[in-house]
C-alpha cells in the first residue's frame, strides 16, 4: 500500500527540488558527503596550523602575518588562536565531518539501496536533517568571523568552568555560545536522521530480507543511529545547562568560591564533574558512532575483494550490538584522574576492557576473511586493509588507557592523541575514503581514477603512521596535549622536539595528499570512466540497479531477496559472485 | 588465467606492514618513560607487561595481515574458499582475548587499589596544592601540622590563597609559589584544589597525575624516592597561559628540607 | 524476525555451503507489527524520555553533592499539586477515550473527549504558570532561592519549564490537528500519534512529581 503513494509523485522534480531542496535520499546523502568533505578540508587546514605552531613554537611566519594580521600579529600565532584552532578542529572533525559523512552521507545513500526501499521512511524529515546540519556548521564557522573574543577555545570537550566563565579564556566570551548553538543544531539534525534510519531499517526491508541477511554496513548504520538517538540527549541536557550557566547565572556546573581573573564569583554549589559525566556519556558512544559504520564498510569491502564470504557473520552482528550497548557504560574511563570516586574508576576499568572483546572478535574475523581469499588490491580494498592495521594499532594502545593505573601516566598526553587518531579518527577516515572509492560508481555512474586513488592511498597510509605513531613516544615521556609552546617552559620536552618537527613535516604531506583525493573526486565525477551497474561484481542489492540508480530506486517494484549478501565464490554458482536477488533455482542457469 | 602474477602493490603492502612491525618492535627496546622517581613501581610493572602482551599481538596481527595479503593476492585458483565461519576458531579467539583481558582487569584493579584507593600512612607529610591560572601554589602547615582554613573571600594580594585570618591554625602556615620541596623517602599527601578552572597536577617522573577541580579537595599520595629536580606540569587545558603553568619539585634530604622550610617561613614573615 | 532461527551462517571451515539460502521464509516487513510512523514515534519517545531522564539524574546528582536541600513540603502546597496532577493524568484517560471513540467511528464522543483533553492541558499550564508566578513573587529566580540552596530553584525552573514546554507543544499540536480533523484533512493515524505523545508527556510528569516534589 505504501508503493501506491510513491507512484503518485513518480516524476523527477525540477532543478531546485531535485538538487538543492531535495527529499531524495541519494541526493541528500551526496549533499551530506560533499559538505562534510568541505568541513574536513577546513578542519585539516586548522590541524596544519596547529602542527606548524607545535613544531616551530612562536616562530614568525611573515606570510601568515600578512594573510591573518589579527590571528598572527607579526607572523606569530597568538595563544588564544591556537586554543581556538584545536577546539574547532576537534569539534568539526568529530561531529561535522566524521559523524556527518558516515551517518548522514553514507547512511542516507546506502540504507534504502541496501534494503531494497525506494526512499527513506520520512523524506521531508531527511531533507530537514541536512539543512539543519548545514546551519549548525555555518554557526560554528561563523564564530571565526562574528564572535567577539573569537571562537570557542575550551577544547572540544568544553569543560566548565573554563567554558562557562567569560573571563576565564577569550573563547568563552561569545564563541562558546556559538558552539552551543551549533551543537544544538547538530544534535537536532542527527536525531532527525537517526529516527529516519531506525524506522527505515525496521519497517521498509524488501521481501525476504530479514535482519540476518542485512549487509554489515546497514547493520552498523542501524545500530549507530540507535546509539546516537540514545546518547545525544545527555549532551542536549548538558548544553542547555551550560547555556543557562553562561547567560542566566545558574550554577549547575559552577561550584562556590570561584576566583577567576581577580574576581570572586557568586556561583554556588554546582559541580564541574557533572559536565564531564554528561559530556562523556555522549562522548564515548560518539566514538563508536564514527567507528561502527567504518567497520561495516570495511567488512563489505573486504568480503567483496577477497571474493569470499565475510567470516563469522553472526559474530560480527553480535559484536556490533555488543559494542553499541557496552558503549553506554564505559564513559568514566575518560575521567580516571578527574577526581571522580576512585571505586567508580575500577568499574569503568573493567567495562572498558570488556568492550575490547567484541572489537578483537571483529579484527580476527576480518583476518580470517583474508585467509584463503582471492585478494584483488583495488583502491577501496587498500583502504579497507589499512583500516585493519590502524584499528589494531589504535585498539592495542587503547588497552593502556583502559587500565586505570596506566592512564594516570598517559591521560591528557600525546599517547591519547595518538590512540584516538588511529582508531576513532584514522580508522573512520580510512573507512570513509574506502567507501567513497567503493560506492562512487553507484553515486555518480563514473569510476574514480585508480592511479590517482592508489597514489593518494600510499601517501596517506605511510604518512598517517609517520604522524601518529611517534606521538605515542611523546606521550609516554609525558608530553601533554594542547600546549601552545611545548619547550619554552618545559625543559623535559626539549629533547623530544625533533620528533615534533618530524611529525609536522609528515602532517603537511598528509594534508597535501588529500588534495589528490579532492581532485580525483571532482574530476572523476565529470570525466571519469563510465561505470557499469556492478563494476566490482558485488552481491548487494544496490549493485542490481543501474549506476546511478533511477530517482526512485525500484520505482515501486521492490526486489525479492533470497540470500545474504556474502555468497562470493559459492561452489555451485557459475561466477564467483551471487547477487542477493538470485533464487536457488536460478543459480544453474546463471542468467544474472 | 592460471599464471596470475602477484601485483606490485602486494609486495609493497607486505613491506609496509613488515616495516610497521619492525619499527614498532625496534622502539620497544628504547627507554619509553622517564626513569621512575617514586614508589609507584607497580604502575611501571603493569605497563611493561602490557607492552609485552600488546607487542606480541601487534606483531602477530599486523604481520599476519601483511602475510595474508602477500600470500592470497597470488591465488592460482578459479574461486576463493567458500568459508563463512568456524565455531572452534571463533570460540578460541573470543575466550583467549577474554582471558588475557581478564588478567589485566584484575591486575589493573589491584594496582589501582594500591596507588589510588589505599590510604596514606599516618606519618605522611601533608601539603596543600592550590592551582590557579597560571601557577601552582603550595602550602605547608606550621608546626601544629594543621592547615588554616581556605576561603576565597579572603583572597588579596598578600593572601593569594585566601587563608582565613581568624583561624588560629593558619598562623605560620608556609606558602610557596611554583616550587615544591619534598623530603626524599617520606610519604607525602597532596591535597589538590583549584581556585578557578580545572587544572591537572602532573609529574611524569613520579607517575602522578590528579586533576585540580574547583570546589573539591582531592588527595593523592606517593613517596618520592630519588633526590633531584622534577618538573610539575599542568596537563589539563586551563586557558591562554596553559603552556606556562610549570612548577618545579625539588626532592631533597630531610635536613635540607627542614632548612628550606625555615628559609621559606622567614621569607613569608618578612613580607 | 522469524528468519533468525532458520539462519545458520557459520558453516564448517571445510567450506560447506552456508544454510542461509532458505527460499520459503516469510515477508517480515517490520520487527514490530506496527506502522512506520508509530515506530518512529516510539523511538522519538525513548530519546525524549532519556532527555528527561538526564535532567532528573542531574537533579539527583546535585542533590547528593549538596550539603543541604530545601524541605519541599514547606515550599509546595500538596493540595494544589494534587489538583495539577489529577488534571494532567486524567487528560491522558480522556485522550485514550477519544482515540477509542475515533476508532469505533463515534465522532461525537471523540470530539467531546478530545476537546476536554486540550482543556485539561491548558488548565495544567495555567496552574503551572500560577505556581511559577507565585514563586517568582516570593523572590525565587534561576540563581536565587529564598528557601536555601539556589541550585534547587535553578533545577526546579529548568525541569518544570522544560516539561511545561512539552505540554504547551502538546496542546498546540492537539489543537492544530484537531482543527485539521474537523475539516477532514488529517488521518486517524496522526491523531493516534498525537495521543502517544500526549500520554508520554503525562507519564513524564509522574517522574518529575516523584523526584522533585515528593522524594
Separation of termini of chain C? 42 Å
List low-pLDDT spans of chain C: 1-33
Instruction: State the assembly state of the protein chains.
Output: heterotrimer
- Number of DSSP helical runs of chain B: 4
Count every beta strand of chain C, where a strand is a DSSP E run of 2 or more residues: 0
Basic shape of chain B: elongated
CATH homologous superfamily heading of the largest domain in chain B: Cupredoxins -  blue copper proteins
Going by helix content, strand content and strand pairing, the class of chain C is: mainly alpha
Per DSSP, the total helix count of chain C is 7
Quickly give the CATH architecture of chain C: Up-down Bundle
Strand content bin of chain B: 15-25%
- What is the C-alpha radius of gyration of chain B, as a whole number of Å? 27 Å
The biggest sheet of chain C, with number of strands, parallel, antiparallel or mixed sense and barrel status, is:
none
Which CATH class of the largest domain in chain B applies here? Mainly Beta
| Order of helical and strand elements of chain C | HHHHHHH
Helix content of chain B: 25-40%
| Count of separate structural domains of chain B | 2
Name the beta content range of chain C.
under 5%
CATH class of chain C: Mainly Alpha
In CATH, the topology of the largest domain in chain B is named Immunoglobulin-like
3D architecture notes:
The complex is a heterotrimer of chains A (592), B (271) and C (215). Chain A has 592 residues and is an all-alpha fold. Helix content of chain A is 63%, strand content 1%. Chain A has one domain (25-255, 265-532): Cytochrome C Oxidase, Chain A (Up-down Bundle), CATH 1.20.210.10. Chain A has a two-stranded antiparallel ribbon. In chain A, a hairpin with a 2-residue loop joins β1 (259-260) and β2. Chain A is globular. The model of chain A is unreliable at 1-9 (pLDDT under 50). Chain B is α+β, with helices and mostly antiparallel strands. Chain B is built from four helices and ten strands; from the N terminus they run αααββββββββββα. Chain C is mainly alpha-helical and 215 residues long. Chain C has seven helices and no strands. The relative contact order of chain C is 0.13. At the A-B interface, α5, β1, α9, α10 and α11 of A face α1, α2, α3, β7 and β9 of B.
Defining key terms:
heterotrimer; A: mainly alpha; Cytochrome C Oxidase, Chain A; 17 helices; disordered N terminus; C: 215 residues; mainly alpha; Four Helix Bundle (Hemerythrin (Met), subunit A); 7 helices
Amino acid at each position: 500500500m505504501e508503493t501506491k503513494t510513491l507512484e503518485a509523485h513518480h516524476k523527477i522534480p525540477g532543478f531546485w527540488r531535485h538538487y538543492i531542496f531535495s527529499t531524495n535520499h541519494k541526493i541528500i546523502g551526496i549533499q551530506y558527503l560533499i559538505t562534510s568533505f568541505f568541513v574536513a578540508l577546513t578542519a585539516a587546514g586548522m590541524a596544519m596550523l596547529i602542527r606548524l605552531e607545535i613544531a616551530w613554537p612562536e616562530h614568525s611566519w611573515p606570510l601568515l602575518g600578512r594573510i591573518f594580521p589579527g590571528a598572527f600579529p607579526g607572523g606569530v600565532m597568538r595563544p588564544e588562536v591556537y586554543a581556538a584552532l584545536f577546539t574547532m578542529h576537534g569539534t568539526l572533525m568529530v561531529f561535522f565531518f566524521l559523524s556527518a559523512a558516515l551517518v548522514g552521507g553514507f547512511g542516507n545513500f546506502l540504507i534504502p539501496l541496501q534494503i531494497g526501499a525506494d526512499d527513506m521512511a520520512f523524506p521531508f524529515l531527511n531533507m530537514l536533517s541536512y539543512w539543519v546540519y548545514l546551519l549548525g556548521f555555518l554557526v560554528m564557522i561563523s564564530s571565526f568571523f562574528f564572535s567577539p573574543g573569537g571562537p570557542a577555545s575550551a577544547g572540544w570537550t568544553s569543560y566548565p568552568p573554563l567554558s562557562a566563565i567569560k573571563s576565564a579564556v577569550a573563547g568563552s566570551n561569545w564563541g562558546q555560545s556559538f558552539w552551543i548553538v551549533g551543537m544544538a543544531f547538530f544534535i537536532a539534525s542527527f536525531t532527525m536522521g537517526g529516527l529516519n534510519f531506525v524506522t527505515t531499517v525496521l519497517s521498509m526491508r524488501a521481501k525476504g530480507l530479514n535482519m540476518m541477511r542485512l549487509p554489515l554496513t546497514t547493520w552498523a548504520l542501524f545500530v549507530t543511529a540507535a546509539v546516537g538517538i540514545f546518547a545525544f540527549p545527555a549532551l542536549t541536557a548538558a548544553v542547555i545547562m551550560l547555556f543557562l550557566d553562561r547567560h542566566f547565572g545558574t550554577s549547575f556546573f559552577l561550584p562556590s568560591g570561584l576566583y577567576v581573573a581577580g574576581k570572586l564569583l557568586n556561583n554556588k554549589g554546582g559541580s564541574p564533574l557533572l559536565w564531564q559525566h554528561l559530556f562523556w556519556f555522549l562522548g564515548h558512544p560518539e566514538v563508536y558512532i564514527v567507528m561502527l559504520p567504518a567497520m561495516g564498510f570495511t567488512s563489505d569491502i573486504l568480503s567483496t575483494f577477497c571474493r569470499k564470504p565475510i567470516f563469522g557473520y553472526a559474530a560480527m552482528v553480535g559484536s556490533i550490538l555488543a559494542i553499541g550497548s557496552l558503549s553506554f557504560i564505559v564513559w568514566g574511563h575518560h575521567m580516571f584522574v578527574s577526581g571522580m570516586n576512585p571505586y567508580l574508576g575500577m568499574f569503568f576499568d573493567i567495562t572498558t576492557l570488556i568492550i575490547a572483546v567484541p572489537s578483537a572478535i571483529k579484527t580476527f574475523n576480518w583476518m580470517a576473511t583474508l585467509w584463503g581469499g582471492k585478494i584483488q588490491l583495488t583502491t577501496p580494498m587498500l583502504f579497507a586493509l589499512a583500516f585493519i592495521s590502524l584499528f589494531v594499532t589504535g585498539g592495542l594502545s587503547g588497552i593502556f588507557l583502559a587500565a586505570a593505573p596506566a592512564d594516570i601516566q598517559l591521560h591528557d598526553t600525546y599517547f591519547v592523541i595518538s590512540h584516538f587518531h588511529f582508531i576513532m579518527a584514522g580508522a573512520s577516515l580510512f573507512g570513509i575514503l574506502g567507501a567513497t572509492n567503493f560506492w562512487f560508481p553507484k553515486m555518480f555512474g563514473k569510476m574514480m581514477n585508480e592511479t590517482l586513488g592508489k597514489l593518494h592511498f600510499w601517501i596517506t597510509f605511510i604518512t598517517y603512521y609517520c604522524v601518529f605513531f611517534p606521538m605515542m613516544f611523546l606521550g609516554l615521556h609525558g608530553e601533554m596535549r594542547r600546549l601552545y609552546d611545548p619547550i619554552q617552559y618545559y625543559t623535559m620536552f626539549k629533547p623530544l622536539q625533533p620528533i615534533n618537527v618530524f611529525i609536522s613535516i609528515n602532517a603537511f604531506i598528509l594534508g597535501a595528499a588529500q588534495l589528490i583525493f579532492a581532485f580525483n573526486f571532482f574530476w572523476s565525477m565529470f570525466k571519469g570512466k563510465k561505470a557499469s551497474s556492478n563494476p566490482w561484481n558485488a552481491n548487494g542489492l544496490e549493485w542490481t540497479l543501474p549506476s546511478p540508480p533511477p530517482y526512485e530506486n525500484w520505482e515501486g517494484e521492490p526486489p525479492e531477496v533470497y540470500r545474504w549478501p556474502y555468497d562470493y565464490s559459492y561452489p555451485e554458482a557459475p561466477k564467483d559472485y551471487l547477487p542477493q536477488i538470485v533464487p536457488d533455482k536460478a543459480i544453474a542457469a546463471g542468467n544474472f | 588465467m592460471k599464471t596470475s602474477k602477484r601485483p606490485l602493490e602486494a609486495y609493497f603492502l607486505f613491506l609496509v606492514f613488515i616495516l610497521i612491525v619492525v619499527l614498532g618492535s625496534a622502539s620497544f627496546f628504547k627507554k619509553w618513560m622517564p626513569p621512575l622517581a617514586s614508589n609507584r613501581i607497580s604502575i611501571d610493572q603493569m605497563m611493561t607487561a602490557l607492552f609485552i602482551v600488546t607487542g606480541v599481538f601487534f606483531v602477530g596481527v599486523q604481520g599476519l595481515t601483511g602475510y595474508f595479503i602477500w600470500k592470497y593476492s597470488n591465488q592460482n585458483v578459479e574461486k576463493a574458499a567458500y568459508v563463512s565461519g568456524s565455531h572452534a576458531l571463533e570460540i578460541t579467539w573470543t575466550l583467549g582475548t577474554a582471558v588475557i583481558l581478564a588478567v589485566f582487569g584484575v591486575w589493573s584493579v589491584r594496582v589501582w587499589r594500591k596507588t589510588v584507593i589505599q590510604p596514606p600512612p599516618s606519618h605522611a607529610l601533608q601539603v596543600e596544592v592550590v592551582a590557579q591560572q597560571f601557577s601552582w601554589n603550595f602550602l605547608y602547615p606550621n608546626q601544629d601540622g594543621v592547615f588554616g582554613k581556605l576561603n576565597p573571600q579572603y583572597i588579596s594580594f598578600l593572601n593569594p590563597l585566601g587563608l582565613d585570618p581568624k583561624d588560629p591554625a593558619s598562623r605560620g602556615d608556609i606558602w610557596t609559589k611554583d616550587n615544591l620541596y619534598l623530603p626524599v623517602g617520606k610519604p607525602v599527601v597532596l591535597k589538590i584544589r583549584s581556585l578557578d578552572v580545572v587544572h591537572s597536577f602532573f609529574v611524569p617522573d613520579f607517575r602522578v597525575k590528579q586533576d585540580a577541580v574547583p570546589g573539591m579537595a582531592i588527595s593523592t599520595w606517593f613517596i618520592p624516592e630519588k633526590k633531584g629536580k622534577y618538573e610539575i606540569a599542568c596537563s589539563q587545558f586551563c586557558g591562554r597561559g596553559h603552556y606556562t603553568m610549570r612548577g618545579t619539585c625539588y626532592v631533597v634530604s630531610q635536613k635540607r628540607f627542614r632548612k628550606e622550610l625555615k628559609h621559606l617561613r622567614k621569607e613569608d614573615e618578612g613580607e | 524476525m522469524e528468519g533468525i532461527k532458520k539462519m545458520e551462517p557459520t558453516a564448517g571451515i571445510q567450506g560447506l555451503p552456508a544454510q542461509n539460502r532458505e527460499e520459503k521464509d516469510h515477508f517480515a516487513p517490520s520487527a514490530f507489527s506496527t506502522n512506520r510512523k508509530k515506530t518512529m514515534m516510539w523511538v522519538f519517545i525513548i530519546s525524549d524520555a532519556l532527555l528527561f531522564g538526564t535532567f532528573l539524574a542531574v537533579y539527583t546528582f546535585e542533590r547528593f553533592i549538596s550539603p543541604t536541600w530545601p524541605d519541599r513540603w514547606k515550599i509546595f502546597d500538596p493540595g494544589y499539586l494534587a489538583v495539577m496532577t489529577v488534571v494532567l493524568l486524567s487528560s491522558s484517560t480522556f485522550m485514550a477515550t477519544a482515540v477509542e471513540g475515533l476508532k469505533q467511528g463515534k465522532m461525537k464522543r471523540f470530539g467531546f473527549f478530545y476537546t476536554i483533553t486540550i482543556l485539561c492541558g491548558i488548565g495544567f499550564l495555567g496552574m503551572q504558570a500560577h505556581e511559577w508566578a507565585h514563586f517568582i513573587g516570593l523572590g525565587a529566580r534561576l540563581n536565587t532561592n529564598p528557601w536555601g540552596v539556589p541550585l534547587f530553584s535553578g533545577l526546579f525552573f529548568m525541569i518544570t519549564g522544560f516539561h511545561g514546554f512539552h505540554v504547551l507543544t502538546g496542546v498546540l499540536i492537539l489543537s492544530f490537528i484537531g482543527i485539521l480533523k474537523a475539516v477532514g484533512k488529517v488521518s486517524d493515524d496522526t491523531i493516534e500519534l498525537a495521543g502517544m505523545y500526549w500520554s508520554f508527556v503525562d507519564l513524564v510528569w509522574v517522574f518529575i512529581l516523584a523526584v522533585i516534589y515528593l522524594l
